[in-house]
Amino acid sequence: MKPEQQLDRFLSTLFRYVEKAVLLLVGGLALLAIGQLVMGVVGNGQVKLEDVLLIFIFLEIMAMANVYFIRHSVPFTYPMFIAVTALSRLIVLQGKNVAMENLLFEGGAILLVSVAILVIRFSQRYHCDEPERDESANTEHAAPRPPCG
Asked: From which residue to which does any coiled coil extend (predicted)?
């Protein structure tokens, strides 16, 4: 094997392990953040909607890291779900003393991202290439795909 090929192979392996280590770190930090939130809720003696939404954001981050470990790719919609949850949390945190225009812009952003998720999901369903395997989907009752060409 040529030295250049050996270097490419070494770097590819190195990056693969660094990537897995960083994903473990992200998942671990998200788990730690959830623990800190739970301890804060216990310390305050009350559960707030913003805490629950933040826990959902951390759970979605952990799910995204898990999906990457399983599939070696992340569906583009996962970060979009995180964005919708983060925008919802922003609206909750602002309270009632926010300008009406800001609320409309933030609601519009949620609508825009939600429509984008639907478009992406719809286009993936009718894409001509072989779809990614989704273990949670029931393939027995899946809609037939249109012919490509």
From this structure: none
